[in-house]
Amino acid sequence: MLRRVPAVAVAVTTLALPPLLSGSHLTVYILLGLAVLVTVGLSLLMGYAGQISLGQASFYAIGGYTAGLLCVHGLPTVLGLLAAPLVSAVFAVVVGVPLLRLRGHHLAFATLAMQLILLSLVARADWAGGAIGLQGIPRLSVGGYEFADDLSYAYLVWAAVAVTLVVARNIVGSRPGRGLRALAGSETAAAASGVPVGRYRLTVFALSAAFAGLAGGIYAFYLGYLAPGSFPVLLSIEYVVMAVVGGLGTLWGALVGATAIILLVQVLNTLGTQPGMPDYAPSVLSYAVYAVLLVLVVIFLPHGIVPAVRDRLIRRTSVAPEGAVVGRPVP
Amino acid sequence: MSDFLQYLITGIGGGCAFALVGSGLVVVHRVTRVVNFAQGSFAVIAAMTASTLLASGFPHGLAEASAVAVGAGAGLLVGLVAIGRPGTPPGASLIITLGMAVFAYAVEVLIWGDQPRSFAGVPGAVEFGGARFQAHYLLIIGATAVVFAGTGLLFARTDVGRALSACASNPYAAKVVGIDVVRMGLLAFGIGGALGGLAGVLVTPIQLVTFDYDVTLIVGGFAAAVFGGLTRPMHTLVGGLLLGVAQSLVAGYGNAAYQMEVALMLLLVVMMRQAARTPAAQQEPV
C-alpha cells in the first residue's frame, strides 16, 4: 500500500494544478506533459531495450503532421488524434526493419540521419506547408465537446500521460518486459534464452514512436500550426537529456527528468529575458543547462536521479538484517 | 567535360573537410573506443576563432594556426571530461561528448553570436582543363594530403604513434608495458581537435559557417569514418572524398537541395552493409 503513495500524490497534484496556473504557466504545463509522453517512450527504448535514438523528435513531427494534415482536409479531429500514434508507429516499423540492424553509436547516427532527411523532405513538401509550415489546424473536438481552452488541453495531455505510463508499466512488468531487460544486458545471451530479439527491439521502437506520435498529435491541435523548424535535432537531444537525467529504464525517471529540465529552462528563460540581458542570453542559458546537466549526471549519477534517490531512500528506511544487500546490487 | 572536372574538384575540396573531421573521429575512436560527437564543434570553434583573429589584424597563416591550436585545446578539454574520470564506459562517453557539443553551442553563441561567418582564403581563381575554380581549393587539397601523410607517419614511425596504436589494439597490454592509457586517450582527443579545427579553418572561405554547422560536419565525417570501419584513416580519406564528389555531382547535375540527403543515404547504406557482414555477437560492447 505504501508503494502506491507517490503515484497517488503525483496523480492528485497533476489533477489539482491546472486551474491554479496562469496563462503562460499553463502553456508550460501542457508542453511539459508532451515532453513526458515522448520521454517515457525514449526511456523504454534506451533503458529497457538498450537502443539509443537521436531522432525521437521525428516521430513527434510525424504524429503532428499526420493529425494536422488529416484535419486540415476536413476529417474528424478524433480520427486525426487516433491516426497520429498509429502512423508514427507504422513509420517506425518501416524504417526500423533496416535501421535496427545497427547498434550503439551506429544506431544513434542512423536515427539522427533519419530525422535530418525527414526535416528536409518536409521543408520541401508544398502539400505539407513546406518550410513556412502547416496553418489552420482546427481544435480537437470529441463527440460535440470542443477542446477550446488551455485548461482542457492540460487535462487531455495529462490523461494521455497517465494512459502511457500505465501501458508502459504493464509492458515492463510482463514477460516480454523481462525479455527486453535481458536483451539490453546482452543480446546474444537473450537470444540464446529464447527471447525473439529482433521482434522485441522493433516493437519497443514502434511503441516509443507511438508515444511520441500521440504527443505530436496533441501538440498540433493545441498550437494549430506546425513547421519543420519546430522539430530541430536539438529537440531530439533534449529528450535524450530528459531521459538520461531522470534515469533510464525507470518510468518515474521520465517524469522527473522532463519536469526538472523544463522547469529549469523556464526559470533560466525568465532570467534571460530580464531587461538588461543580451538577446542571446535565453538560448545560451538553455544550451548550457542541457549540456551541464547531461554531463554531470552521466559522470556522477550514471543511473540518473530517480534510481539514485530511490536507492538512498531504501537504504535509509529499511532496517536491513546483518549483511543483507539492500538496493541495487553494485556491478 | 569541363563542368564535370569543376564538380570533381569542388567535390574533392568539400570531401577533404569530411575526411579531416572523419579522421579525427577515427583517431579518438581507435585509442579510446569513444565516438566523439563533439568532433564537428572543433571545426566550428576554430573557424570562428580564425575569423575573429583575421578581423583583428592577425596575418594569414598565424591566425589559422592559432585557430587550429584552439581546436586542439577544445579537443583536450572534451577528452578530459569524457574519459578523465576512470571507469567511464565508452557508451556513457558518447553521451558526454553529445553534451559537450551542446555546450559548444552555448560558448559559440555567447562569443560569436548566431550569424554565419566567413573569411577570405587564397585569392584568385585557377583555370585547369577548361574548368574554373577558386584557388583556395588547391590549398584545401594540398593541406589535407600533407596532414594525412603526416598522421600516417606519426602512427607508423614514431614512439608516440606506436603507443597510440598499442592502446588501440589492446589497452590492457599497453598498460602492462607502461603506457599511460588515459594520457594517450587525451592526446588522441587533442589530435582529433586539431584535425577538426583544420577542417573548419580550411572550409570557411568556401562555405559560410554558423554555430550549428557542426551537425553537417559530424554526419559527413562519421559517414567517412564509417567507410573505414571507424579504425582506418586511409579508408576514411577515400570515404570523405567519395562523399564530397557525390554531393557536388548531385548539386551540379541535379538539385543542390538534395546534397544533404545524398550524404545521409550514403551513410545509412554503408552502415547497413557493414552490419550485415558483422554478426551481432561481435558488435556487443565488451
UniProtKB/TrEMBL annotation, chain A:
Segments passing through the bilayer: 26-45, 57-75, 81-100, 107-132, 152-172, 204-227, 239-264, 284-306
Protein known as: Branched-chain amino acid ABC transporter permease
Cited PANTHER family: BRANCHED AMINO ACID TRANSPORT SYSTEM PERMEASE (PTHR30482:SF18), HIGH-AFFINITY BRANCHED-CHAIN AMINO ACID TRANSPORT SYSTEM PERMEASE (PTHR30482)
CDD domains in the cross-refs: TM_PBP1_LivM_like
Membrane topology: Multi-pass membrane protein
This protein's UniProt keywords: Cell membrane, Membrane, Transmembrane, Transmembrane helix
Organism: Plantactinospora endophytica
Pfam families xref list: BPD_transp_2
Cell location: Cell membrane
Chief location of this protein within or outside the cell: membrane
Automatic annotation (TrEMBL), chain B:
Domain of life: Bacteria
Keyword Zinc in record: no
Membrane topology: Multi-pass membrane protein
Compartment(s) of residence: Cell membrane
Broad class of the protein's primary localization: membrane
Membrane-spanning parts: 6-28, 40-59, 65-84, 91-113, 133-156, 185-207, 213-230, 237-258
Keywords: Amino-acid transport, Cell membrane, Membrane, Transmembrane, Transmembrane helix, Transport
Family as reported in the entry's similarity comment: Belongs to the binding-protein-dependent transport system permease family. LivHM subfamily.
Name of the protein this chain belongs to: Branched-chain amino acid ABC transporter permease
Species assigned in the record: Plantactinospora endophytica
